[in-house]
Amino acid sequence: MDPKTLLSGMFEAAIDAARPALVLPPVLPPRPASGRVVVIAAGKAAAAMAAAVETAWGGCEGLALTRYGHAVPTQTIEVVEAAHPVPDAAGQGAAQRILALAESLGAGDTLVFLISGGASALLSAPLAAITLAEKAALTRALLASGATIGEMNSVRRHLSAAKGGRLAAAAYPARCLTYAISDVPGDRPEVIGSGPTVADPTTQADALAVLKKYRIEAPPSIAAVLSDPAFETPKPGDPRFAGNCYELIATPQSMLSAAKAVAPLPCHLLGDAIEGEAREVGRVFAGLARAVREGKSAFTAPCILLSGGETTVTLPQRAVEQAMEPATGKGGRNVEFLMGFASEIAGLKGVSALAGDTDGIDGAAPVAGAYVDGTTADRARASGYTLSAAMAAYDGHGLFERLGDQIVTGPTHTNVNDFRAILIEA
């Protein structure tokens, strides 16, 4: 089996292990016998999760909010598509309807909340003092700044009428059952989708500190909200969360374990929560692969190194300040990782890597990721588009499309973060 086929098969196994139809029905309790049951789903896996509930329980009242192109058929739960990662009016309208559904519940009723990666952007219900345009601009600036997902979601929670526990608070006194597919390092409930149904341990001061750290100037409306205690999120110990249930049904670790199970060679897990600047992480991992290849590591070739997590891509400060892209290139954190990796293994035989986002979308491109090996740099040069030029333009997708090394899955209807596999041959 050639390296690209081998690594692609492991990527497919990782995705399959996190599909809602497989992981959600086994953990669902019997359908509540009394009271209203409302199913609300948000995230890239929302429609698939809603469909999985209906497979177990039959038709349900509810609404699923997912990214454009990620809908699947459901029986009675309505599916709405909206923009990601920058929120749009469709997401705002659906979020307002979701809040209204939650508020319509009472004692004896049940809210079933299905959350997956992408919910932070999709479930866009800015607090009344903030406009959607202001929130969208701030989101663009955060995306360009290199802020971690935990930092970004700390800000998002404090600007939303639904996130940071406010959705569960709106449904109180109804009971809330949450089932989550994690796409964040550490699997912290308050970070997954910005935690609409869990108490928020962070504060407005934490959110302001993130903006200060990345030199992002918020408009007066956002600055005012983050400075007014009246807009603080519900905190741990709030009685409105008593009796609620929260269960993780798929995680980056479970995804990597599934890939390891099908590996035909010794396979080592380097961690499911790797963070850092994507291309620099790629360079570090290339150094590790080179050491294994040369017999200078505790790992012995042949082997496969697996990792997950969510790296970041920091654009030039001009792009952060203006909330814009620095160039016309199409990039994402997985192809950024791979360009950094490829730059350090140029000419090295027996080392290859695949990296992809398990939702099938790396950055803003409908491409999951790509494949590289020791020939990538030379092939790029021969194509007339050098690796260094692609890196300067943040154009990983443009480069790998030219080389024929893109990994295209289409929407996978799940999201357990990034998958990275490095093959080191004997």
Q: Which percent range fits the helix content?
A: 25-40%
Q: What is the distance, rounded to the nearest whole angstrom, between the alpha carbons of the first and last residues?
A: 15 Å
CATH arch. level architecture of the largest domain:
3-Layer(aba) Sandwich
Low-confidence regions:
318-327
Number of structural domains: 2
Helix/sheet category: alpha/beta
Number of strands: 12
Number of helices: 17
CATH fold title of the largest domain = Rossmann fold
SSE order: HHEHEEHEHHHHEHHEHEHEHHEEHHHEE
Profile the largest sheet.
6 strands, parallel
Break the fold down into its secondary structure elements and pairings.
Layout: H1 3-16, H2 20-23, E1 37-42, H3 46-57, E2 61-67, E3 78-82, H4 89-103, E4 110-115, H5 119-122, H6 132-145, H7 149-157, H8 166-171, E5 175-181, H9 204-213, H10 220-227, E6 245-250, H11 252-261, E7 267-269, H12 278-293, E8 303-309, H13 317-322, H14 333-344, E9 351-357, E10 369-373, H15 376-383, H16 387-392, H17 396-403, E11 406-407, E12 418-424
Parallel strand pairs: 1-2, 1-4, 2-3, 4-5, 5-6, 7-8
Antiparallel strand pairs: 8-12, 9-10, 9-12, 10-11
Brief overview:
The protein is of the alpha/beta class and 426 residues long. It contains 17 helices and twelve strands.
Can you tell me about this structure?
With 426 residues, the chain is an alpha/beta fold. Helices cover 38% and strands 16% of the residues. The protein folds into two domains: 3-14 and 253-424, glycerate kinase, domain 1 (3-Layer(aba) Sandwich); 31-250, Glycerate kinase, MOFRL-like N-terminal domain (Rossmann fold). Strands 3-2-1-4-5-6 form a six-stranded parallel sheet, sandwiched between helices. Strand 7, helix 12 and strand 8 form a beta-alpha-beta unit. Helix 1 packs across helix 11 (252-261), helix 7 (149-157) packs across helix 9 and helix 12 (278-293) crosses helix 14.
